[in-house]
């Protein structure tokens, strides 16, 4: 099947690529941070020639809810202050976990719209921020490794792919993984969107949720969700209309989700009837080695070739 229209899809505003000497701020909008991992991750960022600031509340822990990195107000303030700071070129999330849903509505989106675009990096729970930035700021973002995550610290190819995406994005326009294979064959064009399945499902019905992913190349991955739970989440997507008009789907990793063949069966059962190309295991998400995938960028998904090809680099030239 070929879902490849003759006119290119239109993407969101891309922030400028980074250069040595640029200023990045690390924030913790979700779960509590391991100080040793934070030190290791920020050292990698500094080795790239970046000036790195750790936001004031990154090492906080919520006084009663130990699964949160500080209070909702402090986590929101760190993110908003970094975004509004004219000296800051990128905001890097330290880790995922849970908590972004609690801060999205505390941010001053009107003020954040008034500043020039900059880079946002994160995955997992940060999916809520990616959706909000797309919907409320019209801004492309990076679904990539966080600086206190094991994949970033321990896997050199993961860090290198993020580095090239940030500094030389023209070299990372073709994304593929060693296990990439067609689940449903075909080719489609659309604007990339998506993230972690259970986080996106929790957005349904909220002000930050788009009505549907119509016209999108939807990227999906998750961690520690049993096949029946993935079935439930995807069924919610289907019943809510979130997948109406989707152009194609690129699946990432499913760490801790059970046997891969069972996960494949669920994906084929729930997504196959959509009649659009579906690519299995592109190589992003909660896996030991992960790609950085831009969101909000026009791209071509070729399930047969196992590739997602960006029509423009993830970040704009400077």
Structure notes:
This protein has 10 helices and 15 strands. It has 318 residues and is an alpha/beta fold. The strands form 2 sheets. Strands 1, 7, 8, 9, 10, 11, 12, 14 and 15 form a 9-stranded mixed sheet that branches. The protein folds into 2 domains: 23-170, 3-Layer(aba) Sandwich (Rossmann fold); 171-310, LD-carboxypeptidase A C-terminal domain-like (Glucose Oxidase, domain 1, 3-Layer(bba) Sandwich), CATH 3.50.30. Mean pLDDT is 96; it is low at 1-8.
How far apart the termini lie comes to 38 Å
Sheet having the most strands: 9 strands, mixed
Low-confidence stretches: 1-8
For this entry, what is the oligomeric state of its chains? single chain
What is the CATH domain class of the largest domain? Answer: Alpha Beta
SSE-based structural type: alpha/beta
Q: Measured on Cα atoms, how large is the radius of gyration?
A: 18 Å
**Beta-strand percent range:** 15-25%
Coarse morphology: globular
CATH topology of the largest domain: Rossmann fold
What level of helicity do the residues show? Answer: 25-40%
The CATH homology group name of the largest domain: Murein tetrapeptidase LD-carboxypeptidase, N-terminal domain
- Spell out the helices and strands N to C: EEHEHEHHEHEHHEEEHEHEHEEEE
Number of E strands:
15
């Amino acid at each position: 099947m070929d879902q490849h229209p003759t006119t290119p899809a239109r993407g969101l505003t891309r922030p400028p690529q980074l250069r040595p000497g640029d200023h990045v701020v690390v924030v913790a909008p979700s779960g509590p941070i391991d100080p040793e991992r934070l030190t290791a991750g920020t050292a990698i960022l500094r080795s790239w020639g970046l000036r790195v600031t750790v936001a004031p509340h990154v090492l906080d822990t919520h006084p009663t809810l130990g699964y949160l990195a500080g209070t909702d107000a402090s986590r929101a303030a760190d993110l908003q202050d970094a975004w509004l700071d004219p000296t800051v070129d990128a905001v890097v999330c330290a880790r995922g976990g849970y908590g972004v849903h609690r801060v999205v509505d505390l941010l001053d989106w009107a003020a954040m719209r008034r500043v020039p675009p900059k880079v946002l990096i994160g995955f997992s729970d940060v999916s809520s921020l990616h959706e909000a930035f797309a919907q409320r700021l019209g801004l492309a973002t990076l679904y990539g490794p966080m600086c206190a995550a094991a994949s970033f610290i321990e896997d050199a190819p993961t860090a290198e792919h993020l580095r090239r995406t940030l500094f030389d994005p023209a070299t990372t326009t073709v994304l593929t993984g060693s296990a990439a294979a067609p689940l449903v064959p075909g080719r489609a064009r659309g604007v990339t969107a998506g993230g972690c399945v259970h986080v996106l499902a929790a957005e349904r019905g909220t002000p930050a949720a788009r009505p549907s992913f119509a016209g999108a190349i939807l990227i999906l991955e998750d961690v520690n969700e049993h096949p029946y739970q993935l079935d439930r989440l995807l069924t919610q997507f289907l019943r809510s209309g979130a997948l109406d008009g989707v152009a194609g789907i690129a699946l990432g990793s499913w760490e801790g989700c059970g046997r891969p063949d069972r996960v494949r069966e669920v994906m084929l059962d729930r997504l196959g009837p959509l009649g659009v190309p579906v690519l299995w295991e592109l190589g992003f998400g909660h896996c030991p080695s992960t790609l950085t995938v831009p969101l909000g960028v026009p791209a071509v998904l070729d399930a047969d070739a196992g590739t997602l090809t960006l029509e423009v680099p993830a970040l704009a030239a400077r």
